[in-house]
Amino acid sequence: MLLRPSSRIVPGLLSRQALRFRAHGSRPYSSSKSDEVDIDAILAKPSWSVTSLLPSESAIESTPVTPKQLHHLLRLSALPQPASKEEEDAMIRTLKSQIHFVKEIQSIDATGVEPLQAIRDETPEAIHENTIGLEQLKEAMSKERVVGRNRRIHRVESPRNDRPDGDAWDGNALGYASKTKGKFFVVETGNESGN
């Protein structure tokens, strides 16, 4: 989601909370009907376009990118060099367009916008689902005991598992060997003449 300067935001947009109330079919009490805003009408007309972030031909020409800089960037990123002059010109045009796009994004006024801590679902349901409570901790807490006058918590040692692979192994390591000699298994090699 791209942030736009506040001057470009359509006046009359509803707050996020008001939209949430409308999405669930209920709305906050209001005595006047003048507060009603048609969301479909607002969303039907775009307030801006992605093409506004793309450069015009004159803006592309104003961004200086030399073939030497292009070759240097390609070497740094371990990409192949252009095979022809036309391919080089196309790469330079694309690079100028990308530079213009990045500069447009950087010029956006984001004062007062709190940056994201992480990209995650921040709905109340997701927050509730990811919250760790006593139910999730019961098993871990059952393996602890309080010791001493200072009431220190010690982990109760569980019995050692002598067979971490489970009870499937019967102790017969030679059971699956195709050839055995005594208590050893035989490995066939390709060089029979050496012995």
Can you give a write-up of this model?
It holds the Pfam family Gta3. This is Glutamyl-tRNA(Gln) amidotransferase subunit F, mitochondrial. One of its GO terms (biological process) is regulation of translational fidelity. Residues 63-116 form the Glutamyl-tRNA amidotransferase complex subunit Gta3 domain. The chain has helices at residues 16-23, 39-44, 57-62, 67-76, 85-106, 124-130, 134-141; strands at residues 144-147, 152-155, 180-181, 184-185. It has 195 residues and is mainly alpha-helical. Among the domains are: 6-106, no CATH class; 124-151, no CATH class. A two-stranded antiparallel ribbon has the order 1-2. The longest helix is centred in the middle third of the chain and has 22 residues, at 85-106. Mean pLDDT is 77; it is low at 1-14 and 16-26.
Q: What is the alpha-carbon Rg in Å?
A: 34 Å
- Tell how many strands the DSSP assignment holds: 4
Order of helices and strands: HHHHHHHEEEE
User: Strand order within the widest sheet?
Assistant: 1-2
Q: What sort of overall outline do the alpha carbons produce when their principal axes are compared?
A: flat
Oligomer: single chain
- Assign the structural class, choosing from mainly alpha, mainly beta, alpha/beta, alpha+beta, or little secondary structure: mainly alpha
**Average pLDDT value?**
77
Q: Roughly what fraction of the amino acids lie in strands? A: 5-15%
> How much helicity do the residues have?
25-40%
Distance between the termini: 73 Å
Unreliable spans are 1-14, 16-26
Largest sheet: 2 strands, antiparallel
Number of helices: 7
